[in-house]
Amino acid sequence: MKVEECFLKVEQSPPESTSNALQLATAALVKKELLAHADSNIILVVASCISEITWITAPDAPYDDDAMKDVLSLIVEAFKHLDDIESPFFGRRTSILDTIAKVQSCVVMLDLKCDDLINDMFHHFLRTVKMEHGVLSLEAVQ
Fold it and tell me: Predominant location of this chain (predicted)?
């Protein structure tokens, strides 16, 4: 979670020295061991870090097309439990949603022809998002 805290402090389009310092962590986050980790909480932290990376590097994608498909899939999975507003991870999930909305990741999904992923994402939204989520989260879904 320390890495996640670091990513949250980085501004968009940081200086080259900061970008260089983030490269190792950015590359490590797409390792199969993390993307397919057995602990769903670890997966959620990875999704959070990756969503922040997409914001930091926007409008450029931080990964190649295949890796972007993998990370977008991971991020969409994070939306599966948006209905659990009592979860200690609810704030992290809504933060991911807000970040992904800001960088318009849906456009990236369309560019990469991730139709099934887009369907999954909207399925999660329609199934889980309720008025209790607050205005910001509901606006992000729109």
Answer: nucleus
Q: The dihedral of CA 76, 82, 86, 91: what is its sign?
A: positive
Question: Encoding tokens for residue 113?
Answer: 């022809």
- With beta carbons less than 8 A apart as the criterion, state whether 29 and 46 touch: yes
Sequence-distant (≥ 6) Cβ neighbours of residue 2 within 8 angstroms = none
Question: Tens of pLDDT along 66-84?
Answer: 999 999 999 999 999 888 8
CA 97, 106, 68 angle in degrees (round to 5)?
90
Amino acid at 24: L
Q: Which two tokens stand for residue 45?
A: 């932290």
Entry pTM: 0.86
